[in-house]
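Exercise 7. Given the encoded structure of a 575-residue chain, write a plausible sequence.
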């Protein structure tokens, strides 16, 4: 198939821009002069490829204003002056020998964009891309004519160009990533729930019994004229085990059961476990990368220890929930850092009341996740601080807690459905002025609040539909109430809150299982689905609790359909 001439493709691009994106069309510069091109060739010491000359004779690059024509994510086209300036700069870095820059690069970085090979050789006339100081690659087009022909085809047919689809918004050309969200997704949590929880440590290896008195195998028969060489294996004494020092949270006056409820215990996983059982369960696929805690009592205080999974107790939302109507003390240790944090009646105490100690690393061990299990203490200073803070809790609060003593005890324990991250306070919120080529600030300023809210509510429903979030009854009911102007309950532990937390846990578990590379039957498509639903649920939560412009920015940014601009216009007209 013959490829159109550069001039023919530019004529098609000009025609489309003039009709659909006149502001971007106006940003195209007039043709470069032949004299200017020849001056540039002499300055750089290389003749321009005929395709490049033909393109510059159509347009000498673009004005780099808002809405300028860009080659998808590779930035605006270079003019003659841009080629000379950027080639000179790149040569000073020793990275320009591959070719002359065609675009100004991602983020207007000269070292990151498309280039055209103008030196004689096997790649003469090819278009490639470079990234910073890496060698260029030729992954896309055999010539500039192919680039411009593909650009014209993408504009006229609404087809992808470098994995992005052209859109025209308010007279400007933009590029949007084409996305799809699978309707069905494998549930990592359901898969994990069908697995058997490991009940105990694996049985120790047994030495085979041999008839000799020493317990070893019988020696082979000795042959005459041979010598025998014996090796004696000396066993090093095992190091003393390091003390247990889990993250632990204490709450005055609560029961262990209430402590677990506030933390988000999954009812089906509640059962007695000792520390070894809990840690083994938390490290198994059955846990699906969720936190596992054990809860007990110590001198009128309930406590919970984190036995595996992501850290929880120092999170502001957890401190707030645990301390509602009471007071809480939390002791955490992560490597060199030991922190003693307090909260009372739903309010974490000021930073100046938090006790934080960082200890230097000691010894020559390379560490790793098994270091403590093997008896290697990389931060003995932190071990001592943790013990000292336990003494502070005993002296100041009457909390008598010894993790080494309670470890073997079977305490009520459970996996957690973690609390959602706190939303920012309304007074601290800001929103971007531009969202995917839309002037959001201008839209907010010129649109009456009620009309804007009604239109964004429809956009939220569209987002829920295209991510399949509205297939959950709690979400469908919430959307119906929003459109009816009724309040929506999103109380902690309520159906809607539990659904949102479950979606966040699904996305987290799927991502971690994929990273593990194990036998879990999840795929990147499943992660796409769960991420999209969790993001849409977060947008719904923002719509319920944050200022409308903030929620609008999130909702519009998450929309999947490439026609969302037109749909928003329709929704505004109908509101």
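Solution.
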């Amino acid at each position: 198939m013959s490829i159109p001439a550069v001039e023919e493709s530019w004529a098609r691009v000009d025609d489309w821009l003039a009709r659909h994106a006149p502001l971007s069309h106006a940003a195209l510069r007039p043709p470069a002069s032949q004299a200017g091109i020849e001056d540039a060739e002499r300055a750089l010491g290389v003749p321009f490829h005929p395709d490049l000359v033909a393109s510059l004779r159509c347009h000498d690059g673009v004005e780099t204003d808002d809405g300028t024509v860009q080659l998808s994510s590779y930035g605006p086209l270079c003019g003659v002056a841009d080629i000379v300036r950027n080639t000179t700069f790149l040569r000073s870095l020793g990275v320009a020998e591959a070719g002359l820059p065609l675009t100004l690069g991602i983020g207007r970085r000269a070292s990151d964009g498309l280039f055209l090979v103008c030196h004689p050789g096997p790649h003469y006339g090819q278009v490639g891309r470079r990234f910073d100081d890496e060698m260029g690659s030729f992954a896309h087009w055999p010539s500039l004519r192919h680039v411009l022909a593909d650009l014209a085809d993408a504009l006229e047919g609404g087809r992808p160009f470098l994995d992005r689809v052209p859109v025209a918004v308010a007279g400007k050309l933009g590029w949007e990533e084409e996305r799809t969200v699978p309707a069905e997704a494998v549930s990592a949590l359901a898969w994990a729930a069908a697995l058997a929880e490991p009940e105990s440590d694996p049985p120790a290896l047994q030495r085979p019994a041999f008839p000799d008195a020493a317990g070893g195998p019988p020696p082979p028969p000795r042959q005459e004229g041979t010598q025998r060489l014996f090796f004696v294996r000396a066993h090093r004494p095992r190091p003393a085990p390091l003390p247990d020092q889990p993250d632990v949270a204490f709450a005055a006056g609560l029961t262990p059961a209430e402590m677990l409820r506030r933390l988000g215990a999954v009812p089906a996983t509640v059962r007695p476990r000792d520390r070894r059982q809990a840690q083994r369960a938390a490290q198994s696929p059955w846990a699906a990368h969720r936190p596992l805690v054990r809860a007990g009592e110590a001198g009128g205080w309930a406590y919970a220890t984190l036995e595996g999974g992501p850290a929880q107790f120092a999170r502001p939302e957890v401190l707030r929930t645990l301390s509602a109507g009471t007071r809480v003390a939390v002791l955490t240790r992560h490597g060199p850092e030991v922190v003693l944090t307090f909260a009372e009646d739903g309010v974490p105490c000021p930073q100046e009341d938090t006790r934080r100690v960082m200890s230097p690393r000691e010894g020559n061990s390379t560490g790793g996740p098994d270091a403590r299990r093997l008896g290697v203490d990389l931060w003995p200073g932190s071990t001592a601080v943790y013990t000292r803070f336990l003494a502070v809790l005993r002296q100041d609060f009457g909390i008598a807690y010894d993790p080494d003593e309670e470890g073997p005890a079977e305490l009520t324990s459970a996996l957690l459905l973690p609390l959602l991250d706190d939303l920012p306070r309304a007074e601290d919120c800001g929103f971007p002025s531009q969202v995917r080529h839309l002037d959001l600030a201008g839209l907010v300023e010129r649109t009456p609040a009620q009309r804007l809210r009604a239109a964004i509510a429809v956009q939220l429903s569209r987002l829920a539909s295209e991510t399949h979030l509205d297939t959950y009854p709690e979400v469908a009911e919430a959307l119906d109430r929003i459109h009816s102007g009724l309040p929506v309950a999103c109380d902690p532990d309520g159906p809607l809150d539990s659904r949102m937390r479950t979606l966040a846990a699904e996305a987290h578990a799927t991502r971690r299982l994929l990273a593990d590379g194990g036998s879990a039957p999840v795929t990147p498509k499943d992660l796409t689905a769960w991420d999209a639903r969790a993001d849409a649920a977060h947008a719904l939560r923002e719509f319920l609790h944050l200022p409308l412009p903030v929620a609008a920015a999130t909702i519009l940014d998450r929309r999947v359909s490439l026609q969302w601009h037109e749909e928003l216009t329709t929704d505004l007209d109908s509101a």
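Remark. The chain has a mean pLDDT of 88. Students should compare their own answers with the one above.
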